[in-house]
Amino acid sequence: MGANHASTFELLSNVRITFLSHKERYLTPRSDNVPLYFQDDVKYSIPNMTYKYILDMFPTLPQFNSPNPLNVLEQNGYNVNSFTYPVDLGNDPGEPHCIVFYINESGNTQYTTAPASNSAVQLIQPVVLHQQRYKLITNNQIKPIIPNKIYPEFLL
Amino acid sequence: MYIPPAVQTSYATDWDNVGLGVPGAILKDITSSNPSLSRAVKEISISVAAAFAKDAVDFATNSVSESLGTEVIGGVSMIARAAINPHLEMIFKGINFREFQFDFKFTPRSPQEAQTALNIIQCFKFYSAPEIKTGADDARYYIYPAEFDIEFWSNGRPNTAINKISTCACTSVNINWTGSGGWSSFRTGAINGAPVEVNLSLQFKELEIMTKNRIGENF
């Protein structure tokens, strides 16, 4: 866990814990809306595999051998009650559905496009993106230049 | 990008109820009993006919009201226990452009993903805005924003199960930098201060009216 910036561990397919520096920590279920807790007497209910994964993540912390690791997380400063619903940035290789935006520039724009170098695409594609899960913006396979150096490589 | 949780399409037609009044009803009776006249009337466009009917009703109403007065008409109606039949008919007025809204939630797991999320947001902000041509003379005019083509893809090819979307204008880009309910950000590193959760809401309006011609093509 980095001390200066966030790092994240994904717990199987239904829980994601994002560790921020110090006490800014979030435990987040994914968008499948699987609740992590239901009622007071069983405050936290997590899948067995997630439980195992937490134990695997913290092998040096004996307190995580508790039957309720989320409770231990909470005691260690994690805000397990602040749930958010993260969604992948279109880079989950197991998700075959996507929405594609093509951007058609105005014909007389000053911010014209430049031919794609494909370097960014080749860098990301085999690792993260399904081959058909991205499109270079603009409808003629070109991508925008970087006006005033504000816009780095675009990938949607 | 991923398909947002809510994907909705609305097909709405605009109808209006118009009171044809006595003149309109008479015209309707005449045309129904006279085929040649009916054909002649049908050759008139619907809009002209509707306008004519409305004008006729307005003229009759105003004339009667002016000559007799609203109070007199009301009194006669009460005594006779009869009210004027407005002869309401539904008139097709047209259709509106379809609108689409897509809500995305970004929760980057790394500085690289945070940068990607910022790029996507900046991309929509940038291309949904007009620009002003540099130069004194051209500064009076906007250059149009970009237009957007939107497609749904499944398993490596366009999804034909749901409707297609024609070229759209992006009419709204709403960004909630505090998607987690409060300000929380990456502190340092490659992207200092990048929010850990951002909600992006995009609204599009189609630039083409959808008629049977296009809906038959799965729009």
Describe this structure as you would to a colleague:
The complex is a heterodimer of chains A (156) and B (219). Chain A has 156 residues and is an alpha+beta fold. Chain A is built from three helices and six strands; from the N terminus they run βββααββαβ. Helix content of chain A is 15%, strand content 19%. Chain A has a three-stranded antiparallel beta sheet, covered by helices on one side. Chain A has a two-stranded antiparallel sheet with strand order 5-6. In chain A, a hairpin with a 5-residue loop joins strand 2 and strand 3. Residues 1-64, 81-95 and 113-156 of chain A have low confidence and may be disordered. Chain B has 219 residues and is α+β, with helices and mostly antiparallel strands. Chain B folds into two domains: 21-85, no CATH class; 96-215. Chain B has six helices and nine strands. A five-stranded antiparallel beta sheet of chain B has the order 3-9-8-6-7, with helices on one face. A two-stranded antiparallel sheet of chain B has the order 1-2. In chain B, helix 1 (21-33) packs across helix 2 (35-43), helix 1 crosses helix 3 and helix 3 (46-68) packs across helix 4. Chain B is elongated and about 85 Å long. At the A-B interface, strand 1 and strand 4 of A face strand 3, helix 5 and strand 6 of B.
List the helices and strands and how they pair.
The complex is a heterodimer of chains A (156) and B (219).
Chain A: E1 7-11, E2 15-19, E3 25-29, H1 48-57, H2 69-75, E4 97-104, E5 113-115, H3 119-124, E6 142-144
Antiparallel strand pairs in A: 1-2, 2-3, 5-6
Chain B: E1 13-19, H1 21-33, H2 35-43, H3 46-68, H4 70-80, E2 88-95, E3 99-106, H5 111-127, E4 131-132, E5 142-143, E6 147-154, E7 157-158, E8 168-176, E9 198-206, H6 212-215
Antiparallel strand pairs in B: 1-2, 3-9, 4-5, 6-7, 6-8, 8-9
Helix pairs in contact in B: 1-2, 1-3, 3-4
Short note summarizing the structure:
The complex is a heterodimer of chains A (156) and B (219). Chain A has 156 residues and is an alpha+beta fold.
